């Protein structure tokens, strides 16, 4: 007769892990669409949104795939060591203590160096195409952040839009009355960014780019919007009590529609641009004190 301690039918550890993986991986991924996976869980609308988004997505996807492969190898080695070198019934005392294994030491040193160098050069290549982009703007648009709204100066067209703060309506959307930034499609844009008071941050999630707006340190974003549509933008730097209301709409429109829009601003009398005279600490004369 079998003793009660007799193990049941043997199923190898590898098999059990295989079953676990076969059940959980599809379950985890089944909630995701193909587009979500292709964009690496970035906003789906980022696909083709600007001339930079593809490079960002490729870097991101390449990075996590490379790290996932490395992770799987490391996890497999850990599990294998745990199982292969587990304490057995007849083991007594401490196991043999091992150290100074040159092949292992070299592996642990060389692999991270290769990984870090790989990421470094890939990142530099992407940055050269994106954050270092200095293509002269066919349209220059100045965005000024202020507590808690946005001003948009269409510098090339010499018109402006002054945004006002809009209370949240319980949804995530900025709402119809929130400031709306119009961008012409397929046009080299130079978006100049500045702040009128405290540190803000200009972020259109679908563009996969974000820039801090630091008073006195103007920045710019050179980009080409390549897909017409509606996007949302927001301030991404906690800038005070109503930071959460600092949202805006983005409309990427045809060049004709953009011309119509800027003309409508001119017709409303919004000519000229809203300059630094609206900044909180603006002194009319250099060096003058309040
Ligand atoms: Cu802000």
Automatic annotation (TrEMBL):
One of its GO terms (molecular function) is copper ion binding. It holds the Pfam family COX2. Its cofactor is Cu cation. The keyword tRNA processing does not apply. Binds a copper A center. Keywords: Copper, Electron transport, Membrane, Metal-binding, Respiratory chain, Translocase, Transmembrane, Transmembrane helix, Transport. Gene3D superfamilies: 1.10.287.90, Cupredoxins - blue copper proteins (2.60.40.420). It is found in: Cell membrane; Membrane. The chain crosses the membrane at residues 58-83, 104-121. It is an enzyme of class 7 (translocase). Residues 37-134 form the Cytochrome oxidase subunit II transmembrane region profile domain. GO terms for biological process: ATP synthesis coupled electron transport. Residues 136-264 form the Cytochrome oxidase subunit II copper A binding domain. It comes from the Bacteria. Its EC number is 7.1.1.9. NCBIfam families: CoxB. Subunits I and II form the functional core of the enzyme complex. Electrons originating in cytochrome c are transferred via heme a and Cu(A) to the binuclear center formed by heme a3 and Cu(B). Belongs to the cytochrome c oxidase subunit 2 family. This is Cytochrome c oxidase subunit 2. The lineage of its organism: Bacteria, Bacillati, Actinomycetota, Actinomycetes, Micrococcales.
């Amino acid at each position: 007769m079998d003793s009660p301690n007799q193990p049941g039918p043997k199923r190898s550890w590898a098999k059990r892990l295989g079953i676990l993986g076969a059940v959980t991986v599809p379950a985890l991924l089944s909630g995701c669409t193909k587009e979500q996976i292709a964009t690496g869980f970035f906003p789906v609308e980022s696909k083709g949104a600007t001339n930079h988004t593809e490079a960002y997505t490729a870097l991101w996807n390449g990075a996590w795939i490379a790290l996932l492969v490395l992770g799987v190898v490391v996890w497999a080695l850990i599990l294998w060591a745990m199982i292969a070198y587990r304490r057995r019934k007849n083991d007594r005392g401490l196991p043999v203590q091992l150290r100074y294994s040159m092949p292992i030491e070299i592996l642990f040193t060389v692999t991270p160096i290769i990984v870090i160098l790989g990421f470094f050069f890939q990142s530099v290549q992407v940055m050269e195409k994106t954050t270092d982009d200095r293509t002269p703007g066919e349209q220059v648009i100045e965005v000024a952040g202020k507590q808690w709204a946005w001003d948009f100066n269409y510098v090339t067209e010499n018109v402006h839009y002054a945004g006002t703060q809009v209370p949240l309506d319980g949804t995530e959307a900025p709402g119809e009355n929130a400031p709306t930034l119009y961008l012409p499609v397929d046009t080299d844009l130079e978006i100049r960014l500045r702040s009128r008071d405290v540190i803000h941050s200009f972020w259109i999630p679908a563009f996969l780019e974000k820039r801090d707006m630091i008073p006195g340190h103007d920045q710019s974003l050179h980009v080409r919007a390549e897909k017409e549509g509606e996007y949302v933008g927001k301030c991404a730097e906690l800038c005070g009590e109503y930071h959460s209301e600092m949202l805006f709409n983005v409309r990427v429109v045809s060049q004709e529609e953009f011309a119509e829009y800027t003309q409508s601003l001119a017709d409303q009398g919004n000519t000229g641009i809203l300059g630094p005279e609206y900044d909180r600490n603006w002194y009319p004369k250099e060096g003058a004190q309040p």
